[in-house]
Design goal:
single chain, mainly beta, Neuraminidase, 24 strands
C-alpha cells in the first residue's frame, strides 16, 4: 500500500509539471545584460516574433536577418504574440489593464488596440484564416479552481461568443487551420491534457492523443500537418508532428537532455521554430531553436539571458 501511494504521488507530480507548460504561466524576471548577442545564430528567411523577459518583464520582440527589434516596452506583461494571416498585425495578450486581455498592434509595434476587456483573464490569441476574428482562452474560477474555455472575438465589433458551447471540460490554446474548418486545442483529461480537434462544420470534438501527455498543437501553413508537444518518450517533452486526423505521428526532436516546447511552423513548412531548455521549470533558460522537419536536425537560433518563448513565424 505504501509503495502504491508513493507511485501515485510521483505520477501526480509529473503530470502537474507537464500541466504547467501546457497552460500559460508567468515566467521569472531576469535582469537585462549589455553582453547579449542580439542576432540570429543561423540564417533564416522571414520574421519570428516571440516574448522574452530578459529586460525584467515579458516584452514582445521581432527577430529577422537584420537583428532583433523590440516591439513593446513597458512595465506590464506582454505575452503570446501571433501574426495575422497577412502579416500586417500581431495579436497578443497583456495585463496592462489589471487582468489579461487581448490586444492587436501593427507589425512594427505601433497602434495598439484593445480587443477584449473583461474582469476574467483572456490569453493566447489565435487568428482565424479570414483575419477578422480571433480565438482566445478565457480563464475563470469555479469552486476555487481555474477553468478555461475557448471564445472568439470579432476584431472590429469586439463581440465575443463561446466557440464550443456544448463542451464542458476545461480547454484552451487554440490554433486554427488555414485550409479547413478545424480548430486544434488542448483539452483536460482525467489526468493531464491532450491535443484535440474541433470540427466547426460537424460541431464535433475528437482527441488526437491519449494519456494526458500532449498539448499546444499548431497547424502548418497549408493545414496538412500539426506540430505539437508530446511527453511520452523518456518522460520528457518533445516536438512531434501528425496529420489533423491524428495519423502518421512522428517524433522530431530526439534530444535526451532537453525539454522541447512551443512549436511554430515556417512559412514553407520545411522548418519548425521551438523552445528548448535543460531545465523543466519556469526558471529555466529557454532558448529558440530551428528544426529541420526532414532531417530532425535542430540548431540554436537565439539565446538571451531570459526566457525566449512562444515564437510565431511569418514570411
Amino acid at each position: 500500500m505504501k509503495n502504491k501511494t508513493i507511485t501515485r504521488i510521483f505520477l501526480l507530480t509529473v503530470f502537474s509539471i507537464f500541466l504547467a507548460f501546457c497552460i500559460n504561466k508567468e515566467e521569472a524576471s531576469v535582469d537585462s545584460s549589455s553582453d547579449v548577442d542580439f542576432t540570429a545564430k543561423i540564417p533564416f528567411s522571414g520574421k519570428i516574433i516571440f516574448q522574452s523577459n530578459f529586460d525584467g518583464d515579458n516584452e514582445i520582440y521581432l527577430l529577422s536577418g537584420s537583428g532583433l527589434e523590440q516591439l513593446t516596452n513597458n512595465t506590464w506583461q506582454d505575452e503570446y504574440p501571433v501574426w495575422s494571416p497577412d502579416g500586417k498585425k500581431i495579436a497578443f495578450s497583456s495585463d496592462r489593464e489589471g487582468q489579461y486581455d487581448i490586444f492587436t498592434m501593427n507589425s512594427d509595434g505601433k497602434e495598439v488596440v484593445s480587443i477584449t476587456s473583461s474582469p476574467l483573464d483572456e490569453k493566447e490569441p489565435a487568428w482565424y484564416s479570414d483575419g477578422k476574428k480571433l480565438a482566445f482562452t478565457r480563464e475563470a474560477k469555479k469552486f476555487l479552481k481555474k477553468r478555461s474555455a475557448l471564445y472568439q472575438v470579432d476584431i472590429n465589433t469586439h463581440k465575443t461568443k463561446k466557440i464550443i458551447p456544448q463542451y464542458s471540460k476545461s480547454h484552451g490554446i487554440a490554433n486554427i487551420s488555414p485550409s479547413a474548418s478545424l480548430i486544434t486545442f488542448t483539452g483536460k483529461r482525467t489526468i493531464g491534457w491532450d491535443t484535440a480537434i474541433y470540427n466547426m462544420e460537424k460541431n464535433q470534438v475528437n482527441f488526437l492523443n491519449r494519456g494526458g501527455k500532449s498539448c499546444r498543437a499548431r497547424f502548418s501553413k497549408n493545414g496538412e500537418k500539426l506540430a505539437y508537444v508530446y511527453s511520452n518518450a523518456e518522460g520528457k517533452s518533445d516536438i512531434w508532428i501528425m496529420k489533423p486526423d491524428g495519423s502518421e505521428k512522428i517524433r522530431l526532436t530526439i534530444r535526451t537532455d532537453t525539454y522541447d516546447y512551443f512549436p511554430a511552423w515556417s512559412p514553407d513548412g520545411n522548418y519548425i521554430v521551438f523552445n528548448s531548455s535543460l531545465q523543466h521549470n519556469l526558471n529555466g533558460d529557454w532558448q529558440l531553436y530551428i528544426l529541420d522537419v526532414k532531417t530532425g536536425k535542430a540548431n540554436l537560433l537565439f539565446d538571451s539571458p531570459g526566457n525566449d518563448i512562444f515564437p510565431d513565424w511569418h514570411q
